[in-house]
Design goal:
oxidoreductase; single chain; mainly alpha; two-stranded antiparallel ribbon; membrane; Fe3_Rdtase_TM_dom; about 240 residues; transmembrane helix
Length: about 240
Amino acid sequence: YKAIKYARNDEAQAVFGACICVARGAAQALNFNALVILLPICRHFMTFLRSTKLRFLFPFDAQLEIHILVGIVFGLFSLAHFSAHMCDFHRFASASEEDIYALFGNKLGPVPESGSERWALLLGTRAGITGIIMTVCIIAAYVCIYFRRKKFNVFWYMHHLLLVMLVALCIHGTDSLLEGYQSVFWLIAPFALYFIPRFLRETPFSSMKVIEARIKPGPVAQLKLERPKHWDKRVQAGMYG
């Protein structure tokens, strides 16, 4: 519906043309995918849902496959959004000042005449800076997928750049250049479901004593841990990661 909305916006069409429709439509799809992409890796939440009758309706055991599928869709919409904005920047560089002020008002401040300075103007906004950060994070995180089996630790840490990307996404629209920002509202619940359990695992509440650690031939690591007192009551299958 965002694409349709901007297709009917004469001011936006005068400056950006059809490119803005693709950019805004892809942005809305990215908001939804950003919400969904975190849910399959919210282990405690997935374990809870698996214990309800919803397990007969949704394939909770395929959460990793769902995460990967959503990641692919997210990457495709990111590419569409990025490409459309490159088109937007190109058109903005040659748009008339009258059309630009009609669309943005004074939100951008004085609009320079030079095309390169107009590119710099957009890239210097909060949306532009966070857009660059998100692009770098997405490229780095997605490239490392190819090293997942051989260099898992590299993949693991680099893949967490997607969390940085999601934080940048929350900030991305806060300039409200075209409309009020909304990404943060899509991500509040997934962030809470993901970060709260991770935080609790690092607190004394979840502390666990290592009894014995050995390196065996193979190479194999043997690790013995003290069983927490609350283990049987609060720990269920699937609560890992």
